[in-house]
Amino acid sequence: MGHSQAEKAATRERILRAASRRIRTDGVDRPGVAELMQEAGLTHGGFYKHFNSRDDLITQAAAFALSEGTAKMERSARKNPEDARAGLIDAYLAKQHRDGPATGCALVTLGAAAGRGDQQIQQAYENQVRTYLDLIAGLDEDADTPRAEAMLTLSALVGAMLISRAVADQDFSDELLETVAEQLTDRTSCEPPTDA
């Protein structure tokens, strides 16, 4: 790749990174092209060198935001080498994650937009859900039904994070995160019941 092509690719990534943070914070409908370019430290004039339209940028920024989460989830799972699933749960349901939507899991912030969005955003969202399910199922070797358990876990993680960000009472928000984390962790650490 030549110097100018490498520069163009780096600039494009900078725009996508800035736009992905912004749409996780404000949604896909709010930011305009001028705002997004300014946030990336560029002028509006260079926009069309990188994207065909605002919709093209938003679609690619959503895919970028979604795919960014994979490495974070993998790192979270490695935080607790003795119980990778518990490490992932604790990291995902952390207050820092709740308080940082711009860099947090895009499944939480882009769910409604994906449901209303075009097929490209829906496909990117689905791909990320499938990736997370595979990752979580791979952590649960002892589960009788690892895929079903992964679906329950992912749904609880995303739902708890969404609700914790939406409620006004900070103590209640904290309680939601802590309770869901505890319940999810207890689900797999409990011994199965024995027949008496």
UniProtKB/TrEMBL annotation:
DNA-binding annotation, residue ranges on this chain: 32-51
InterPro entries reported in the protein's UniProt record: Homeodomain-like_sf, HTH_TetR, Tet_transcr_reg_TetR-rel_C_sf
Transmembrane regions: none
Pfam families named in the record: TetR_N
Residues of the HTH tetR-type domain: 9-69
Keyword Methyltransferase assigned: no
Keywords noted in UniProt: DNA-binding, Transcription, Transcription regulation
Stored SUPFAM superfamilies: Homeodomain-like (SSF46689), Tetracyclin repressor-like, C-terminal domain (SSF48498)
Protein name, per record: TetR/AcrR family transcriptional regulator
Source organism (scientific name): Streptomyces nigra
